[in-house]
Design a protein that fits this description.
heterodimer, A: alpha+beta, PH-domain like, B: PH-domain like, three-stranded antiparallel β-sheet, 4 helices, 24% strand
Chain lengths: 507, 169
């Protein structure tokens, strides 16, 4: 059975219909706008020759609006199925001499050859529909910043075949001579003997999501809800109705978000076996993520405003070559206590633990923040002259809010570094602590302007190899000498990535 | 500052100023064309004229002074272990890229660059990129060549298993 991957095979035929999924959404919208009765009426007529004659005649005359009719959608649907079928029939893949070969013999011929040593991660993912029909997606990612936002190759196979295909890729990679730069892939066998580090139950998953609700969303809900309670007869009944409707929308959104998160993080389990980390989670759509601990490029510790009140922390990791579609930076731990978070870090990313004393932002940084506050208050100043009763209150509120924000921007920024690591702390509402190894930093931008330059301070944007959400990290304002020291240490640190395959420039 | 950083910062040539001026000219013309829409606003024409005059003065300052200042401010340096690029007028950015993180060097130029005989050298690392702008073609070639040589030396050292630490190049 294993030898079969040497011969080219196709994806499971279900991919043909999967391509239609996005199109179904479009059809649903059209149905809502056009009405079911009209659609059904069109459906009954589409089997007559006269109808199609008239349809193509209208199309020929340049009136493409008929494409939006029920029959038009049906026609597009057929075209999508035919094209998907053609692509499915002409796409083959195989593993030959430790090289993954994907051959598209369609109109745009393309043969992709990926040496197994270049593979970073292979993951199996199953949606609800795939679980019903017994298939699975095999997602293959490579170490590349250019394709960091998407999965490089996706194959759909029957589950047993998908697992075999994953195993074959792992073996092909292990067979490669030059494996010093690649992530060791993880087989199902290794996964079964891994030790559980942390596991989250139902209540902890709910707690995580409730405490992670964005502050802005909560504030908006409060602002919408408050006037309903403070109703003193000045508002019209219609206005109150609108507020209640908005409130419902927000509540439904929040509930949906919590439910979605509970389903997504259901039975969240973090495991470790030697140098490999495994994350399993999900109720309807289960996901199993695996990566080598040495491929962690940075650790992000997050605390929402509510989580800070309860002293809870969540941990994310920036990992190279891991691009599961929902999660660019895998969560190592949902919100948990400080001691548990430290234990997870110690076991999974001990290299990213530092006890260096945090250096708060320079007091001089109050100057640029306050200037920004004055500017934003100034923009709202015309509110004083608006001939509507008490609009000046809005100006005062904006001004106070701007100055509080400016002060908090200064207070919440900190930085520290030692011989190996740099730690950047930022975030007013969502406190984020980013720990990066100097050898993983790809670029530093020290930013200043004519005001902060005179004060001898600047801030820095630090770039690491990660998905876009965690690629750039901006510090607060610190003494320029301090940032220069960080830049010097970055330059002196030996590059953590491979020094062999990365150099691809040929003049 | 250690020895490796002590290389001289280089500035831009006069051709680069030409590119900056042409680009600024195109931007100013676009802004002035848009500012004509002010006549469509329900305000007295005299205010529209006054506002357009202010925009015109700002455009002239931008065209003659700001571009010159930007040209003067632009500096770059290639040391044994790092590249530095300083640019900007009001908001200054100092980009630092360690040489051993570079994995691709490209030379690119657009029609305006080609007209003035300048080019960009785009340096890509595994997770970022930096651009040397407005370099005359020969200098762009030399910069790309130098970086390429440094990369190859480090690659050779890595393949021999000598490591790529400080002082390798």
């Amino acid at each position: 059975m294993k030898a079969m991957f040497k011969e080219p095979i196709r994806n499971h035929p279900s991919v043909i219909f999967e391509k239609l999924a996005a199109f179904w959404g479009f059809i649903a919208v059209m149905l809502l706008s056009e009405g079911f009765s009209q659609f059904l009426e069109g459906k009954s007529r589409i089997f007559s020759v006269t109808y199609w004659r008239g349809f193509f005649y209208t199309l020929k005359s340049g009136d493409f609006s008929v494409l939006l009719s029920g029959a038009g959608l049906f026609l597009i649907c057929v075209i999508v199925i035919v094209i998907s079928f053609y692509v499915w029939r002409k796409t083959f893949f195989s593993i030959r001499d430790s090289v993954l070969v994907v051959d598209k013999k369609t109109l745009f011929k393309k043969v992709s050859k990926l040496p197994a040593s270049n593979i970073s991660t292979v993951n199996i993912e199953r949606s609800l529909i795939e679980r019903l029909i017994g298939t699975a997606k095999v997602k293959v990612d490579i170490n590349s910043s250019t394709t960091a936002e998407q999965t490089d190759f996706t194959f759909v196979l029957k589950l047993p075949l998908a697992e075999l295909f994953k195993e074959e890729l792992i073996k092909a990679k292990a067979g490669e001579e030059n494996t010093q730069t690649a992530v060791p892939l993880i087989s199902a066998f290794e996964e079964s003997r891994a030790d559980t580090i942390i596991k989250f139950g139902f209540s902890e998953v709910i707690r995580h999501q409730l405490l992670s609700i964005p502050f802005a969303q909560g504030l908006l809900a409060l602002l919408t809800f408050l006037p309903v309670f403070l109703e003193d007869g000045r508002y019209s009944a219609g206005g109150t109705d609108q507020r209640i409707f908005l409130l419902w929308l927000l509540l439904i959104g929040a509930v949906f978000s919590v439910v979605k998160s509970v389903f997504k993080n259901w039975n969240f389990t973090l495991m470790k076996d030697g140098g490999n980390i495994y994350i399993k989670k999900g109720l309807i759509k289960t996901s199993s993520i695996a990566f080598g601990a040495d491929k962690i490029n940075g650790v992000i510790i997050k605390q929402s405003l509510l989580a800070r009140i309860f002293g809870l922390y969540s941990i994310e990791a920036a990992v190279i070559g891991l691009t599961t579609q929902q999660e660019k930076t895998p969560v190592l731990s949902l919100l948990t206590t400080k001691s548990e978070a430290e234990r997870v870090l110690k076991l999974c990313a001990p290299d990213y633990m530092t006890s260096s004393q945090l250096i708060p932002a320079s007091k001089k940084s109050l100057v640029p923040y306050m200037i920004a506050a004055v500017f934003s208050s100034g923009v709202s100043a015309p509110l004083i002259f608006v001939p509507i009763q008490k609009t000046w209150i809005s100006f005062i509120a904006i001004a106070i809010f701007s100055f509080i924000l400016a002060y908090m921007s200064y207070r919440t920024k900190a930085i520290t570094f030692d011989e190996r690591l740099v730690k950047i702390v930022s975030g007013i509402l969502l406190r984020k602590t980013v720990v990066i190894n100097f050898s993983d930093i790809q670029k530093i931008d020290i930013k200043s302007d004519f005001i902060v330059k005179r004060l001898g301070i600047a801030r820095a944007a630090v770039s690491i190899l990660s998905a876009s959400a965690q690629r750039n990290h901006l510090t607060g304002y610190f003494d320029r000498a301090l940032l220069d020291e960080i830049a010097d240490r970055t330059v002196k640190a030996k590059d953590a990535l491979s020094t062999v395959r990365r150099f691809s420039y040929e003049k | 500052m250690d020895n490796k950083q002590s290389g001289e910062f280089m500035g831009l040539t006069k051709q680069a100023l030409g590119v900056l001026r042409v680009t600024a000219g195109i931007q100013c013309l676009a802004v002035l064309a848009l500012s004509l829409l002010l006549f469509k606003l329900p305000i007295r024409p005299v205010f529209s004229v006054l506002m357009i005059l202010v925009i015109l003065i700002l455009c002239l300052v931008y065209f003659f002074k700001i571009t010159e200042f930007r040209h003067r401010r632009y500096k770059y340096r290639i040391s044994d272990d790092r590249i530095d690029i300083i640019e900007g007028v009001f908001f200054v950015s100092h980009t630092i890229v360690p040489v051993d993180r570079i994995h691709q060097v490209e030379i690119a130029f657009d029609p305006i660059d080609a007209r003035f005989g300048v080019a960009k050298v785009i340096v890509t690392t595994a997770g970022s990129r930096a651009v040397f702008r407005f370099l005359e073609k020969e200098r762009a070639d030399a910069v790309a060549e130098k970086l390429n040589k440094m990369i190859k030396e480090r690659l050779a050292a890595a393949q021999k298993g000598e490591g790529t630490g400080e002082g390798d190049v």
